[in-house]
Amino acid sequence: MTAATFTLRLARPADASLLATMSREFIEDGLRWTWRAPRIARQIESSDTVVLVALEGRRLAGFAIMSYGDTNAHLNLLAVDPAYRMQGLGRRMVDWLEKTARNAGIFRITLEVRAQNFGGRCFYKALGYREVLLLRGYYQGAEDAVRMRHNLRVDVTSS
Ligand SMILES: CC(C)(COP(=O)(O)OP(=O)(O)OC[C@H]1O[C@@H](n2cnc3c(N)ncnc32)[C@H](O)[C@@H]1OP(=O)(O)O)[C@@H](O)C(=O)NCCC(=O)NCCS
């Protein structure tokens, strides 16, 4: 089997509906669906947020949404289609977004992940994120979250 080749680009308004469906299936499964198309469309248009999509050919393979503040960036959503997992795509999207943060002088990334999402927690740990807080009932009072943080300053090397 040949390895998939992915290209990354910024999302367009026309992508919002498919990203919302991916969010419902891969991220919000079992919770009330909050990341619907209009909300994602607003993120695509927002000047403080980057919505990144990954394509294999014309097929959407993954996406990520990061909001940038003055000193902190927050990873709101990240998903890779199951057909393309464990091929480095999640890492590649996070690397891209972190590089963008560094270039903007932002060195701290935070995120929340469902406490029961052990695969997601392992993924973020593999990328250098630390678990810093348990947020009880964070998801609609029904499920806990784990806040994770990545200090990008410790990874900076000169070249
Ligand atoms: C979590 C997710 C984004 C990972 O994407 P991916 O493209 O499969 O991850 P990668 O192939 O880039 O893996 C990067 C590293 O994380 C590790 N990893 C990825 N998924 C893992 C899992 N389920 N369990 C343990 N480790 C995992 C990989 O082994 C790899 O480690 P290495 O580089 O040390 O070998 C993907 O599984 C997904 O979309 N899950 C559903 C949505 C979700 O949980 N999103 C995150 C919370 S919002």
Keywords:
36% strand; 159 residues; alpha+beta; 7 strands; binds coenzyme A; seven-stranded mixed β-sheet; Aminopeptidase; 4 helices
Which helices and strands appear, and what pairs or packs with what?
Blueprint: E1 7-10, H1 16-27, H2 37-45, E2 49-56, E3 59-68, E4 72-80, H3 89-103, E5 108-114, H4 118-126, E6 130-139, E7 143-151
Parallel strand pairs: 4-5
Antiparallel strand pairs: 1-2, 2-3, 3-4, 5-7, 6-7
Mean pLDDT metric = 95
Radius of gyration, whole Å? 15 Å
CATH class: Alpha Beta
Counting DSSP E segments of at least 2 residues, the number of strands comes to: 7
In the CATH hierarchy, the third-tier topology is known as: Aminopeptidase
Q: Please indicate the percent range of residues in DSSP E strands (runs of 2 or more).
A: 35-45%
CATH-defined superfamily? Gcn5-related N-acetyltransferase (GNAT)
Describe this structure in words.
The structure is a single chain. It is globular, with a radius of gyration of 15 Å. It is an alpha+beta fold and 159 residues long. The mean pLDDT is 95. Helix 1 crosses helix 2 (37-45). The longest helix is centred in the middle third of the chain and has 15 residues, at 89-103. It is 28% helix and 36% strand. It contains four helices and seven strands, in the order E-H-H-E-E-E-H-E-H-E-E. The relative contact order is 0.14. It has helices spanning 16-27, 37-45, 89-103, 118-126; strands at 7-10, 49-56, 59-68, 72-80, 108-114, 130-139, 143-151. It has one domain: Gcn5-related N-acetyltransferase (GNAT) (Aminopeptidase). Strands 1-2-3-4-5-7-6 form a seven-stranded mixed beta sheet, sandwiched between helices. Coenzyme A (COA) is lined by residues 26-27, 77-80, 85-91, 113, 117, 119-120, 122-123, 126.
